[in-house]
Amino acid sequence: MMLDQAINASGTVHDRLTARTVAILFFCAFFMLIEGLDLAAMPLAVPRVSAQWGQPPSAFALSLSAVLIGIGLASVLLAPLGERFGRKRMIVWTGMLAAGATFGTATADNVSAFVVWRLLTGIGLGACLPNVTASVAHIAPVHMRARILAIVNTAIPVGSVMAALIVAPVVRIGNWQALFVIAGLLTLIAIAGLVILMPSHQQAIPSSSTTTKRQPSASPLFELFLPAHRIKTLLLLGLATTNTFLIYMMINWLPTLLPRGGMPVDTAARLSGLFQFGGIVGGFFFAYQLDRGRAVGTFVGGYLCAAAGLIGIAVTAYSGTLWALLLLAIGVGISGAHIAITIFGMIFYPQHLLSSFVGLSIAVTRSGAICGPLAGGWLVAHVAGVGGFMLAALIPVALCIAWVLIIGRAERTGIMALPTITKENCDRA
Q1: Residue 369, SS3 per DSSP
Q2: Whole-angstrom distance, CA of residue 152 vs CA of residue 135
């Protein structure tokens, strides 16, 4: 039987989407949407909480970082437990932790309480979401897997946009605490949906489910660095970390940088969103190409598109329409690749390593998420204008292209086999 195909209620598999499978995928995407909403809720709440408590916004810096720290730690330490205890159990247990901590955030009455509750929220999300992603890869029909994963992953930015849209009316009706109450309730709804729909078959993945020989004492996380997987793990983490560095550098500094090039401040705030919108468009395009085994060329083409956009802004005077198109092109290449990289990586691993790989990737790439804004801040302070910033961003873009070409070379030489995603060979997992 083909483990890469969708599972029905009895635990058997098939190559088409059933109503039950679609419903499970919906609630998995719902989890991702909640993550985006939750992560955006705290920054949106800070101005209101700081005014209410008479604290400067800088006092909440650790609160904002605590959830990311929790996600990073849990992604690598707890997420792999899904392979031992079952992904469904891990999603339910850790999702309940995230929901409880989110409700707890609404009860916080001092900064220290915020830090504790946000750290616990991050631990719950960091352990839960890699198992959600691995479950999606497991049940999605193989010929649609990349596109389905892209749809599910784009729910995160959708959740962030949703948070921005609801914050004003929610605060008017209630207060900032209502943001976290809503996020907690939505998490419970997602858990209930998966408890009802996800088959009990989605439990621990036995070693017999893969043709890769495992060391009896090797944990899934350790196995990622055994000789059979070490090179591809290092290459994929290098690509993911560099891209994460790049995307967080752009996201954090575009609204500040663009007005220096002549763009009105309000316009810069709106047009910066084109970078993320380009990511959604690019993510679907990347996924479509991945489903057809065109990984390396697609990633190189995407990064070249981003490079063209960066150069275009660097060498042209401000023009609203032109810069909007160039920002969209940059987003297609960089943000689109960000959505697709995890999908790209998952095709290299057997089922019993998926949660571990996703968790490790989330944890390691946090270094890029931290260093990118710091590097962007240095560039804004020491490099003259928009043009210098954009040209400097070409360096990590070139490094991403180098990573992809090395992966392609490793695939051609047999060091890192890239499976062709077809129905005929999907039983390799």
Answers
A1: helix
A2: 11
Tokens of 300: 């190189």
26 to 30, 148, 193: CA distances (angstroms): 6, 10, 9
The whole-angstrom distance between residue 168's C-alpha and the CA centroid of its chain comes to: 26
> Of 363, 353, 130, which Cα lies nearest the Cα of 228?
353
Q: What digits encode the pLDDT tens for the residues 194-217?
A: 888 887 655 444 443 444 444 444
Burial class of residue 163, CB neighbours in 10 A (0-12, 13-18, 19+): buried
**pLDDT, greater one: 105 or 318:** 105
Q: What is d(CA 186, CA 166) in angstroms, rounded to the nearest whole number? A: 14
Alpha-carbon torsion (39, 43, 46, 47), positive or negative: negative
Q: How far apart are CA 358 and CA 238, in angstroms?
A: 14
3-state secondary structure of 125: helix
> Hey, CA dihedral for 40, 42, 45, 46, is it positive or negative?
negative
Query: Phi and psi of 251, rounded to 5°?
Result: -60, -45
| Through-space distance between the first and last CA atoms of the chain, rounded to whole angstroms | 10
Using one digit for the tens of pLDDT, what is the confidence trace for 174-184?
688 888 888 89
| Predicted TM-score (pTM) of this structure | 0.67
Residues in the chain: 429
C-alpha–C-alpha distance, residues 290 and 280, integer Å: 15
Confirm if 202 and 78 have CB atoms less than 8 A apart.
Answer: no
For CA atoms 85, 213, 229, 134, give the dihedral sign: negative
Residue ranges and CATH numbers for the domains of the chain are 6-204 (1.20.1250.20), 220-428 (1.20.1250.20)
DSSP one-letter code for 203:
S
Q: In whole angstroms, what is the distance from residue 143 CA to residue 131 CA?
A: 21
Greatest Cα-to-Cα distance within the chain, rounded to the nearest angstrom: 63
Residues 67 and 122: beta-carbon distance below 8 Å: yes
